[in-house]
Amino acid sequence: MRNFHRRRRWLSFKSCIIPDDEISRKLPKEILLRILSYLDVTSLCRCGQVSRYWNMLALDGSNWQKIDLFDFQRDIEGPVIENISQRCGGFLKYLRLRGCQSVGSHSIRTLANYCHNIEHLDLSECKKISDVAIQQLSRNCAKLTAINLESCSQISDSSLKALSDGCPNLTEINVSWCNLITENGVEALARGCNKIKKFSSKGCKQVNDRAVISLAIYCPGIEVLNLHSCDSITDASISKIAEKCCNLKQLCVSKCTELTDQSLTALAMNNQYLNTLEVAGCAQFTDSGFIALAKNCKYLERMDLEECSLITDATLQNLALGCPSLEKLTLSHCELITDEGIRQLAGGGCAAESLSVLELDNCPLITDATLEHLISCHNLQRIELYDCQLISRNAIRRLRNHLPNIKVHAYFAPVTPPPTINGPRPRYCRCCEIL
Fold first, then answer.
1. H or E segment at 416?
2. Domain-ending residue, one of 28, 47, 63
3. Is residue 343 in a domain?
4. Strand partners of residue 173
5. Per the UniProt entry, what is one GO biological process (predicted)?
């Protein structure tokens, strides 16, 4: 009886399968291929199980021009990439292998041999990739325009020199956390790839003034530059970037602690289209530099000033007057900011029309009055108030009553009790109360 029911279910399923020739009669191959070209990897694989004919269509190389395996399967093995490369051949233009740590240089060499038209390649966190693979890419993939090598720890200056020789159309490159990269590699890259518009070298301690100045001289079209934690760079290189790269729109120099107001002044004088500035941890910056920026950079939308501990309310006053497009502002650990500065910010054009995110963690001088001022910021979507001891729960409730969709992130660490006269300070709970 069990076998009878199983056979009946199989016959029922079989009767639902449309024969290949009927599919081909109803929809021409060209139409089906066009439809399938809009599907992602997972959907294509499912379509390939419908019938032999659909399997052939789903695996056609023309449907695999853009492949993103990051959200599909993180533990992809090398042979899978090799099979994809051989199947797609010249069709493949975009491949994202972020985090596929089993993929090694041999697979990328196969990719380079078959996929000569690849334009965008993301190998970030593929830790087995070495210079050998990048050298093969440079020899075979001259159309490459964007490559992401973030956290590929085996990549060195040899890769940058190879890309310089073989990929003159490169416009985007990310070598963040590639600790073997030095100024020699960056200079070689800049000389050969002078179309670069986006460059990121976060955490590359050997990327110094010489490297950045090379980018400024040979790649004047740079629009996005991320030098986070390249802590040896000075005002000399940022001033050169400001002078030569007039189209600069996004700059991150967070944790570049040698920089002073000279860098901000240079940016203000030369880069009027700057819209994103991240300077967290640049503790030498003062009101003077930011006032210059506010007067000349009218298109600023995002600013991260965390731990710029010397700035005062004067910076906020000038940002309110000069930067009407400001959407996100981080002032965490700016301990001289007061309610008056927030009042002036809230009264400016940016707060009423644009400001959506305001981060005020560890600003000890702001009080409930700050939240009263922010009620007029109708577009405010998120505010950070971690460890702002003078903000009360009632003030947060009032803010939420006026802005019901706002997300308030806050907690209050217990105040440290004073030392006792006799004996050590008593122990106390450090637990945080989440609002």
1. none
2. 63
3. yes
4. 147, 199
5. SCF-dependent proteasomal ubiquitin-dependent protein catabolic process
Taking the C-alpha atoms of residue 372 and residue 141, their distance in angstroms, rounded to an integer, is 58
Q: What is the DSSP letter of 156?
A: B
Q: How confident is the model at residue 47 (pLDDT cuts 50, 70, 90)?
A: confident
In a domain, 297, yes or no: yes
* Structural domain includes residue 243: no
**Which domain does 58 fall in, by range?**
19-63
DSSP sequence for 239-291: HHHHHH-TT--EEE-TT-TT--HHHHHHHHHH-TT--EEE-TT-TT--HHHHH
- Render pLDDT for 233-255 as a digit per residue (tens, 0 to 9): 999 999 999 999 999 999 999 99
Give just the sign of the alpha carbon dihedral 15, 21, 23, 25. Answer: negative
Q: Are 47 and 58 in contact (CB under 8 A)?
A: yes
Residue 41 sits in a domain whose CATH number is 1.20.1280
**How many C-beta atoms lie closer than 10 Å to residue 353's C-beta?**
14
Residue type at position 11: L
Class of residue 336 by CB neighbours under 10 A (exposed 0-12, middle 13-18, buried 19+):
middle
Please indicate, yes or no, if residue 380 is contained in any of the structural domains.
yes
The 3-state DSSP class for residue 206 equals coil
CATH number at residue 309: 3.80.10.10
